[in-house]
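Lab notebook, bench 4. The sequencing result for the construct came back, and we need a structural model before the next group meeting so we can plan mutations. Quick request posted to the team channel:

Model the 3D structure of this chain.
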Amino acid sequence: MIIGLSLLAFVLSDFIGSGSMFGGPDYEIAVFNGKSVEYPEYEQIFDGLIENYKRNMGSDAMPEESVVDMIREQAWDILVKKYTLENEIEKTGIKVSEEELFDMVQGTNIDPQILQIPVFQNQQTGMFDRALVIQFLQNMDKDPSGNARASWLAFEEQLVQGRRVTKYNNMIKKAMYVPSVLAQQYHKDNMDKTDCRFVFKPYSLVADSTIECTDAELKAYYDQHLYKYDQEEMRDIDYVVFDILPSSQDMEFLQGKMMKLKEEFATTDDDVAFVNYNSDKAFEDKYYARNTMNPEVDSILFASPVGYIHGPYIENNNYVLAKVMEKKMFPDSVHARHILIQPNEKRNQEASKSLADSILNLLKNKADFIQLVMRYSDDKGSVPDGGDLKWFGRGKMVKPFEDTCFTAKVNEYKIVESQFGYHIVQVLERSKESEQLKVAFVEHLIEPSQQTRQQIFNTATEFASKATNYDEFKKLVGEKGIVKRTANNLSPNERNIAGLESPREVIRWAYNKAAKNEVSEIFELGDKFVVAVLTEIKEKGTAPMELVREQLLTEVRKEKKATQFIEEFKKSGYKTVEDLGAKIQQPVNDAPNITFNSFSLPYVGIEPEIIAVMSISEKGKISEPMKGNNGVFVFEVTNKLPSDQTDYSVDKVRIANEWKTRVEYQSFEAMKKKADITDKRVKFM
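Done. Here's the predicted structure in token form:
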């Protein structure tokens, strides 16, 4: 969705000139192939995307945090593509013609991004409407600021760039060739079957505590397997939380307040005004059928008379009062049809109402409803069905329209005005009526008082002041019985820590301000005060030996166990797998239909190397003892079932299709790797 909304007011970062007021390493957000890129360039992309999103959602409000995070990533992706992918495409000379652009915007091959823009979708059908695009293009020069035209031209530039990327990827796909020998090997690796019997002694039979490992042995294994210990830049933290919760005194005060409101609620003459003045949530004018409210409240209210007030009770962290305002019989659903008359450039509000009145008179004089729908209705989504809206329940239509449908008699014609225009409505059928309630709710959020917040903050402050380093932090946690939590392997752009709301500030602190074992200031995250300590700094590259010591111990112990088992197997003098199984007291297992590309053995688990050797071994030959992931193996191939296929054209197509699905991702990843990107976003966001 967000990719589809990267439009309109976006102005490519080329507009930022060399005369920027920003400069130097403090403003450097990235480095591509040694070229420094400063934060304002990224910020302009991000701000443009935010404005695009707000404009196309019809809102001036900042998007919710999760959407903002997605847009941040999209802005970064645009920046990365500019300095990697677009540079490569420029070398190829790939272009997009004006005719292609016209076709993408208002022709027969509309770009998917345009299809997703809400302002270009018909309000009634929810479908893309080309006429709305044309209308926008015809009117954009009426914007005296010129922003509309500038925005659209910048968006078109993005469409062109996207099409150039598509052409580039298609060019790579067209260049792919699958040799026959590769297709043949692919087929054999997947279709040639091998049946085996094997004996397996798991490493778990020997306790780790019985295997001693010296530092020299660990260092030797580490030096020989450095490739296993590559790591990205990461941070580890421990932290404690101080929940900002209401005290018992807060609860008593709020309950008393609600009891007083209950007395006033019982005597008021205007329930709606009372709710709107005294509740955290505005009055909602709706009727409730049975089993649509909290089950306990539902049963009480339906058994109570009009005017009864239930509560205060707690629901969704609110104290609530519920007053029965009305009891009426309504259908649960209705079947209706309508004709919609909308005001437009040629027909104002008054003319639309006059036309609706005329159509109503025609219907009352036995005119054909469907013919009038076909001729006049502006709801193009229901026109093919003669204006039929099928069956619908409460909450499915705009309120004035819904209220009319649920109160009208069957076959009665009525006019109702909604935000969409004037509807001539006819209810065709009504379901069985049931009792429904109109209920007024007074709600107050249960939250801590300012005094309680201050007391909790003081507790957190006392902890932070005494925890001057990691040792003191751990000591205090033990003394006070506080739960210590851990968040390991936090990347620079991580935005989530389990149990914490919007923890980005903590992660930025860990990267930009903190030294190892340093304790943080107090962070206020949602309903928690948080104090953290930076326990580990992991730089990009090979992890230091001390950080992977436990992994080294596991691997070296496994090596020693494997050596021990192999010697045991050889000394047994086994002649068959059954013979070995009896001597080491382990079962003989069957592994049928193994292929070279299999990865898991029955009763064992993932063993790609053992399986690979099984698949190429001769029938009837007993193997030497082999070290695997989970233990040591000896096997015998009992049958070979090679595929008899000689035509590998299908395999060629399958391989080519697999390659093509990976082109876009892998080519871009290769360019990013070649660009040697240094990502410094954590300094700014």
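The longest strand covers residues 318-331.
Will bring this to the meeting.
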